[in-house]
Amino acid sequence: MSTYNGEKFLSEQIETILNQTGVEVNLHIRDDGSNDRTKEILKTYAEKYDNVNITFGEAAGVGKSFMSLLYSAEPADYYAFSDQDDIWDADKLWSAIQYIKEKAKITDPVLYCGNQKIVDSDRKFVALRLPENYEDHGLMGGILANGYAGCTMVMNHILWELLQDKKRRPKMQFFDSRIHDEWVVAVAQAVGKVIYDPVSHMEYRHHNSAFTSTDSLTSQKN
């Protein structure tokens, strides 16, 4: 998780991550130079939980912040990005892992991407981000207009090894113009497999202070 001035919704999101079922979670958070109460909230969680690790950094921007976390992560079976203001279903990570096991070979570099329930600040349902039959447009389509959201992504260890390999990394300046999830999707499409789950296992808050946005919404009632 990368944070920046997220005091309003941060605690609720951290709780949903720590309460994931069926998996063992290690939560790594990098704060990108917050000047509100975000740092105090993070310190409280780090003191309370052994599996919450905090890094405080200078403002680098969302793409660089997330990639710094990915590069410094400890080896694990799976890796996921998290926004600071969403709400995860208790089975978000477990469902993604089961989907990967079902749809891909164990030797594949795999990136799971899920759908999103868009909600407002009060958690009122607005829309689904992607249609059930969303079409993956491949490497070039992903480079030009990536439809997948980083906060839904779960990758396996094989893909993580390729992404964090120092010989294969782009310069960090690359992420001044391209956000982290666009790069991860492009790598997965080029060397591995991207699998899309039309079912949403999270709520994505759409509010004025959010630092990422949704470009397409599929209007649809619950």
Automatic annotation (TrEMBL):
Keywords annotated in UniProt: Transferase
InterPro entries for this protein: Glyco_trans_2-like, Nucleotide-diphossugar_trans
Segments forming domain Glycosyltransferase 2-like: 1-161
GO MF entries: hexosyltransferase activity
Top-level taxon of the source organism: Bacteria
UniProt keyword annotation of Ligase present: no
Alphabetical list of SUPFAM superfamilies matching this protein: Nucleotide-diphospho-sugar transferases
Signal peptide range: none
Entry annotated with the keyword Transcription: no
Any Pfam family: Glycos_transf_2
PANTHER family reported for this sequence: GLYCOSYLTRANSFERASE (PTHR22916), UDP-GLCNAC:BETAGAL BETA-1,3-N-ACETYLGLUCOSAMINYLTRANSFERASE-LIKE PROTEIN 1 (PTHR22916:SF3)
Stated name of the protein: Glycosyltransferase
Organism encoding this protein: Sporofaciens musculi
